Amino acid sequence: QIFNQHNAEAPNLEQAFHRMAQMEPNLDHDVSWFLLPSYWAKMVVALISFLCFANSYDGDFVFDDSEAIINNKDLRAETPLGDLWYHDFWGSKLSSNTSHKSYRPLTVLTFRINYLFAGGFYPVGFHVINIILHCTISVLMVDVFSILLGGLQFSNKGRRLNLAPKSSLLAALLFAVHPVHTECVAGIVGRADLLCALFFLLSFLGYCKAFRENKEGHTFSVFWVLVSVILGAIAMLCKEQGITILGLNAVFDALVINKINLLELIRKLLSKDKSLENAGLLRKGLLFRITLLMCGGAGILYIRWRIMGTGPPAFTEVDNPASFADSLFVRAINYNYYYSLNAWLLLCPWWLCFDWSMGCIPLIKSVSDWRIIALAALWFCLIGLICQALCSEDSHKRRILTLGLGFLIIPFLPASNLFFRVGFVVAERVIYLPSIGYCILFTYGFSLLSKQAKKKKILAVAVLGILLINVMRCALRSSQWRSEEQLFRSALSVCPLNAKVHYNVGKNLADKGNQSAAIKYYREAVRLNPKYVHAMNNLGNILKERNELHEAEELLSLAVQIQPDFAAAWMNLGIVQNSLRRFEEAEQSYWTAIKHRKKYPDCYYNLGRLYADLNRHIDALNAWRNATVLKPEHSLAWNNMIILLDNTGNLAQAEAVGREALELIPNDHSLMFSLANVLGKSQKYKESEALFLKAIKANPNAASYHGNLAVLYHRWGNLDLAKKHYEVSLKLDPTAPGTKENYNLLRRKLEQLQKKGG
Q1: What span, in angstroms and rounded, lies between the C-alpha atoms of 463 and 352?
Q2: Can you say where the TPR repeats lie in this chain (predicted)?
Q3: What distance in Å separates the CA atoms of residue 605 and residue 355, rounded to the nearest whole number?
């Protein structure tokens, strides 16, 4: 009879339960905001997050995308899939001394899938996946914020109740449209942060499911706790920050599930009170669950440590200058200043930059530096919030502030320099997850203002204005991430002291052929950072091409003096010395480059050119052969071998080398041309003709191709065809050496034949 009565009243019981839950302190009571059904709220968040970043869908590969995607062999089908588990994010072996130790195999796997489905390096597919991921994460944030802001309660049917629908919608919108997320969404390498955030949130939601009472009446499910640990491990395999979710799950368990008052617990521990059971420490299996989380986290970290190796990543002073400061005081004060800059980017994301290193943020070296104010402001706010989170008599306030601070600080810890040196000063991508905490605190602050405000609608309009400004800022910033030129130039006004910004602008201009403008930016990069060897190397290269050899030599010599193992600078110095006809020094520079980079095909190629200039033909051939062994598609080295053998009368050997080269690079028209010349001299006219015609089809505007084919026809006796190709060659290049003389000889011969025929 009791059982039947319970069934009959089930629907009313659920409604009563929901009403009781709403009677508890709730943000939504004070928040003047839109109330939408859960489905519509998620649709709105998805749509707005899509609008923010939609214009990045057809952007290029920019900045770090080149190294992580285009130059990463782990994306290619020929690389064994198993190699992903032993390589870092950039495709280097984790055991290598040059590895950054960034272990993100699942992120690289998604890049590989993108590459395979697109059939090559087409950025659209990569960008679309990033946008979809951010939209999905923003939608999940509606559920996450409803738990963090409204608490975790279930109906008698096991359905989770959304006790803060207005607040969770506002917080999710704040997250979805935050401009600081642009780097993660519009920059393809930001996929690591997006995937990490996705599994981070799924781990949290999975942990929450563990507390849905099951049919057996158990208060929590070990299965869902373990699922949460596994999802945390997956998040870490996407990016290192993912492991922090296990700590946040423990904090959530203690504060929300067990409703522990941290201040009361600390007092009991200090007074050695034995009634810790009443404080909630042992209640509801908290210690057991925290033990599971700790064991899972320790196991994950141990496995990663074994795979990665014990050596820390190797970073340079320009990456993170504060970490190289001798004084502990200077390190501490600058780290804290970096924290304040990250906080400012969350509060006012107007000045955004793709790179904050290399002089962008000068070191604070004394307490007289006015920037100390930023540190004081940061810690004043943090200490105030921590005091409120610990000491407030309002349990609802304590819970929200503690969770907000937890989600703000804990995911940021791996980037804080506290446990290990990181390879950046400030990086917008690392505050993707901490922005969750910011959104919680912002929403709570808005609720407090709404409670005090007489004109709540004006406050709501102000928040709408902030959201609208952020949407426009996201759209503008996304457009800047569409190309390297726009991205690099956008940083000039934000970080004018950043040598890397000027270097990247110069490199972009040089790639487009604007050498004069590139020189200006390279010079500025070297002025800002007199030890910037890469800027010196690139500037030296341009000056070399402009025949300003003495200044080029000075720059390259300085670069190798600053960094003696800089192989590229040694090679370029050798090229300059060769041009200055200082052959012995050039040879020494080339061999020094090869010493520092064993597999350096371009250096062997240039060494071969030096030997050819010195008539050391065997040495030249050996150097070019080394280049082709290291890089079988090195067309210039193959070509030079064929030409040298041809010029020295070794036609049979030249033919063999040419055929070998074309087997490896079958569509290279310059190789076809060189081999056709050899075959013509060997009187293999038919085969030579076929190769000439194939080369002309591939490159119809090459005057020399038509001119040499005309010579072949001339020798072969096909005079009309010879005349035709001589004329085409002269039309393309009227000053072509030898062609005019050969054409005049042919015309005289044709005239003589006509006279004889007459």
Answers
A1: 22
A2: 499-532, 533-566, 601-634, 703-736
A3: 35
pLDDT in tens, 369-399: 999 999 999 999 999 999 998 888 888 888 9
Q: How many CB atoms lie within 10 A of CB 227?
A: 17
Contacts 24+ apart (CB under 8 A), 38-47: 38/142, 38/162, 38/165, 41/142, 41/165, 41/168, 41/169, 41/172, 42/139, 42/142, 44/169, 44/173, 45/138, 45/139, 45/141, 45/142, 45/169, 45/172, 45/173, 45/176, 46/135, 46/138, 46/139
Q: How far apart are CA 661 and CA 162, in angstroms?
A: 69
Structure tokens at 659: 């055929």
Residue written as token pair 């993707």: 432
Q: Are 735 and 722 in contact (CB under 8 A)?
A: no
| 364-399 burial code (b ≥16 CB/10 A, e <16) | beeeeeeebebbeebeeebeebeebbeeeeeebebb
C-alpha distances out from residue 338 to 117, 323, 364, Å: 40, 12, 11
Report which DSSP code applies to 500: H
pLDDT over 50 (residue 219): yes
**Three-state DSSP class for 67?**
helix
Q: What is the pLDDT of residues 338-371, one digit of tens each?
A: 999 999 999 999 889 998 888 788 899 988 999 9
- Residue 448 one-letter amino acid: L
Residue 495 identity = C
Tokens of 492: 């000039």
Structural element, H or E, at residue 330: helix 328-347
pLDDT digits (tens, 9 = 90+) for 385-441: 999 988 888 888 889 999 999 999 999 999 998 888 888 889 999 999 999 999 999
Residue 268 C-beta-side C-alpha neighbours within 13 Å: 15
Distance CA 142, CA 153 (A): 16
Domain boundaries, the chain: 317-478
CA distance 349 to 291: 39
Cβ neighbour number for residue 3 with a 10 Å cutoff: 7
Q: Considering the entire predicted model, what is its pTM?
A: 0.85
SS3 content of the chain, % helix, strand, coil (to 5): 70, 0, 25
How many CA atoms are closer than 13 Å to the CA of 597, on its beta-carbon side? 20
Which tokens hold the place of 570? 């040694």
Q: Please report, as a single letter, which amino acid is at residue 162.
A: N
Measured in whole angstroms, how far is the alpha carbon of residue 45 from the centre of its chain? 26
CB 503 within 8 Å of CB 542? no
